[in-house]
Amino acid sequence: MLSCITSFLWCALLYFAIIPAIILIATRIIVKKLRGQVDPTNEVDVSGKTVIVTGASDGIGKATVEEFATRGARVILACRNVQKAEKVVDDIRSRTRNGELIIMHLNLSSLSSVRSFCADFIQKYPSSLSILVNNAGLINPVGVRNLTEDGFEETFGVNHLAHFLLTDLLLPELKKTGAQNPSEPSRVVIVSSGVHNWGALQFHDLMYEKTPLDDWKFTPKLYCNSKLANNLFNLELAKRLRSEKNANVTCYALCPGIVTTNIGKESAKLRANPEPYLVKHVLFPVVKFAMGKNAKESAQTTMFCALSKHLSHHSGEMYRNCEFWDYSKRTKLSEEDAATLWEMSEKLVGRK
Ligand SMILES: *[C@@H]1O[C@H](CO)[C@@H](O)[C@H](O)[C@H]1NC(C)=O
Ligand SMILES: *[C@@H]1O[C@H](CO)[C@@H](O)[C@H](O)[C@H]1NC(C)=O
Ligand SMILES: *[C@@H]1O[C@H](CO)[C@@H](O)[C@H](O)[C@H]1NC(C)=O
User: Where are the transmembrane segments (predicted)?
Assistant: First the structure.
């Protein structure tokens, strides 16, 4: 009787703990291998260079600021929440004791804030911008359609349109700095996501005013669409820069991977329909354990795109895990859509 129970316990332990643990650890090791290494050319000296990072007070943005600070750059933390950014600066200073860290208020929910940020920056630090990192990203709960100050659907407005205007207004600065040293063009780095593959922009209704929000259960459609817009922007920006001979600016988009930071946590709390039990308690934890990256790991592809010397001739491409991301895996990116989106964005932000 007793042996029967102990063998039952052993079996239970084997099936429900030991085997899953071995599978998880093996997966983790394999995935780590597949993820690729940090590019050694990242270790370039950027002292004296000026970098802007949006959404710098949290997650990948914060880690990105720290990476630049460690390498001696002057970093502008473009943040909505200045108090939070002050804590971030204290924290990073205590570790790096290096880098000029400057907080400037930028609220991407408001185009007038974008304009005053740019005017303020150009006045204070003229002809100095080398790298612009469009990092800030908003994710609203499934089914939520909020508006920005200018009446744009919030996710599209913040993630795409505000960054479109920001980049457009700062481009002359990037060009000036690039021209000072043509062998090192200035860069625009766009933190996008692999979920752009699930997006579908409807050009007749970009703000989802008429189209029902047939949201997918796990990743809000509006977020996927905004990330698709980020990638199309990257494509068209590169094309336009190439057409200007010697523009001295290049641009890159990237997927940071599955990041275990704050984005999404709040949205999970607000989710209208909770995900099925198995998804929440089995699938998500397994995916997170096997493939999740912390903020520092996630920032590596941003640093790769910002600094790697191998990328100069690859403007407009997309990267993941510090590696080129194959075209065949990015089926949603059409040059036609990129041109259409650009023209519509120009009108929406009042640049045409
Ligand atoms: C966005 O929507 C949420 C939920 O519907 C609401 O609580 C919140 O106040 C809205 N935010 C803005 C800025 O409109
Ligand atoms: C950002 O702008 C929006 C829209 O004007 C406003 O509702 C929000 O309070 C602003 N937030 C901050 C922190 O400035
Ligand atoms: C790029 O830099 C070169 C060399 O400094 C300069 O001649 C050229 O005008 C620059 N291009 C633009 C578009 O500013």
Answer: 12-31
Six-digit token pair at 94? 């205590």
Q: Is 218 in a helix, a strand, or coil?
A: coil
Torsion angle of C-alpha atoms 236, 240, 241, 247, degrees rounded to 10: -170
Domains of the chain (ranges; CATH) run 42-349 (3.40.50.720)
223 as an active site residue: the answer is yes
Q: How far apart are the first and last CA of the chain?
A: 83
Query: What is the Cα gyration radius of the chain?
Result: 22
**Active-site choice (208, 223, 277, 327):** 223
H-only helix segments in the chain: 2-13, 19-34, 59-70, 82-96, 111-124, 154-155, 163-180, 221-243, 265-270, 277-278, 284-291, 295-307, 335-348
Is 112 within 8 Å of 149 (Cβ atoms)?
yes
**Residue labelled with tokens 């650890």:** 25
Contacts of 259 (CB under 8 A, 6+ apart): 59, 60, 292, 293, 294, 295, 298
Q: Report the b/e string of 69-88 with b at 16+ CB within 10 A.
A: bbbbbbbbbbbbeeebbeeb
Which residues, given as ranges, of the chain have pLDDT below 50?
267
- pTM to 2 decimal places: 0.86
Cα 236 to ligand 3 centre (Å): 20
Q: Answer whether 250's CB lies under 8 Å from 207's CB.
A: no
